[in-house]
Every structure is written in C-alpha cells, then in structure tokens.
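Dear colleague,

As promised, here are the two records you asked about, laid out in our usual form so they can be pasted straight into your sheet.

NAME FIELD: protein one
SEQUENCE, THEN STRUCTURE:
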Amino acid sequence: LLTATAALLLAGATTATAGDLDASWEDGVEYRFAKRKSLQLGGRVHYDFASFDDDVTQFDDDSDFRRLRASLKGRVDDFHLRADYDFGLVEGWRGLYVQYRGFKRTRITVGQMVAPFSLDDLMSSND
C-alpha cells in the first residue's frame, strides 16, 4: 500500500502543470499537485545540552540529540500516507502507515502508528 500510494503521488507530480503545482512552508515543505494530491516533507530537531560549574559534586558536560526526526506525508484523494523515522535517542520508526478516509467519520489505518493513550501522546513534543 505504501508503494502504491507513493507511486500515485509521483504520478500526480509528473503530470502536474505549472498552474497545478502549489507549495507552502507553513509546517515543513508541502507540495500540492492537484485538488486532493499533496506531498509534505518535514522534521523535528530537539538538541539537549548541559554544562555544569565545578562544585562539590563533579558532573560532566554533555549534549545529545533527544529527537532528530524526518517525516513524509502524502495524500491521494481519500488515501493518506505517513512515514516518520527518528534518528535521536530512541531510533526507529515512529509511524509508517496508510490511512483511508473515504467513509464519513471513519478512518481505516494499516501499518505502524502511535495510539494516543495519554495526554503526552495527544500533545506535540514541542510544548
């Protein structure tokens, strides 16, 4: 399903004329090829750094990427694609799925996704 959705997005991109292509930088880079076809590239970087003055207890200065995430979102009509990979402390796929939204108030999702069971999962990690 992921391959088919990506192929449909690329087909829409190659057949779009200059008047059909629209781009925005609001939340990553988003390209809209037609009325219901789009591709969005984005990511997130959270870098932590700690510096300590010499005191009674010795601590080492340290820094690390807590979150370094690349994301790809796509849409072809009622099919939505999402792929998020985290290169930070917890490396791996955060989300990799295809979703069908053609039914009223119903979404059918196939793949790996984060199920929102707490307020932390429902809020952005930027907040």
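NAME FIELD: protein two
SEQUENCE, THEN STRUCTURE:
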Amino acid sequence: MPITKLFLIRHGQSAGNAEGRFGGHGPTPLSDLGLKQARLTAKALSKEGITAIYSSDLPRALQTAECLADKLGIKVKTTKAFRERHVGVLEGLTFDESKQNHPRDYYALVNRNVHHVITHGESYRHLLKRATGQLWEVLSDHQGEKIAIYSHTGAICFMTLHLMGAIRRDTKQTPWIVTSNCGINRFEIRGRRNIRVLALNDTRHLIDITGN
C-alpha cells in the first residue's frame, strides 16, 4: 500500500481563544495573531507537496486553510465532520463562567468523560464518530498523497487518539493531546494497522512570533 502523509493542523488563534472562551460551533473568526500564525503555517506547509486540503467549515479553520490553498492553488474541501465538539450551553462562555453556571457539563468536559452529552451539545463519542468516519474517507480517496486537514483542538485530539490506537469502545476517559494554535500533527499512513506518528503539536514554523 502506498504511503499517505497526513497533516492535522489546528486553526490559528481566534477571537474566542484570545478571550479564553469555548468556541464550539460558534462562527468566531481569526484574531490578528491568528492570521499571522495561519500565514506562517501556510509558508511551511507549502514546501511539503500537499495535494489535498480539507477543513472544518467553521470560519476560524477555513480562514487558516485558505492561506495554504491560496499559495498552492488548491481548492479547500469543507465539511461539518471536522468541526469542533458542539459544546451546547458552554459555547461562548469562559472556563469560570462554565464552571459556575453549568458545573456538571464543565467537569465532564475537562475530565474527558467520552460518553457525557453536553446540554444542547454532543459527547466526545459523537465527535469521534463523525470526525474519524470522515477521516478514513479522505484517506481512502487520497491514498499515496499528502493531505492537510484543518480542524480544532478537540477534534484533532480525538482523531490523533484514534490513529494511535489509544481509544477503544470501552474507553471512558482519555488523556488530552494538546495542539496549540496552528500546531501540526504529522503522520504516515500505510494502512489502518500501520500508522507512524512523526510529530505532535509541531510549532517550529511559528518561532518568529512565539520566540520558542
């Protein structure tokens, strides 16, 4: 089977990120810093030979993806499947506001209870099913290619756990894999049972604006 290279990229900083608010499915755009991060990420990825670009349809992810698409002349394919977890009543709230007003939903989220359905939202299991289902469709359609998928911290965490074989049907709680704004998780896919993790949360391309 040909080797497929996969890049999972978190969007740049959004206005909501800057204020410490849960983004969920909200239409928050990139901040000025987020746009700088997106451009530097596009510059780095433009050297990787990317042949397909997919993105969540939420503005903060799509704006980030379009920076690379413009450089390569490739159209972004958008999908709701790569959206962040729908956080329901927590959307737009800060951590402190969520803890005070919706403690049950808040603590289930931060403790990664995979089965808990947030009020008017979804569970991590729901997120896992829709994101990984779409992921394998993309990998099947682009075998042997180099694919960039722009998404969100929660969706990337659970796609990464899935690819690493770190989440099963009986899993009740998971660790959290941090992906910074415009961090990149890199994989080589040789088949469902032959996956190599090359890098997690790679932010080397952002050193000019992060300083480390």
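A couple of things worth noting about protein two: The longest strand covers residues 194-202. The chain is about 40% helix and 20% strand.

Best,
R.
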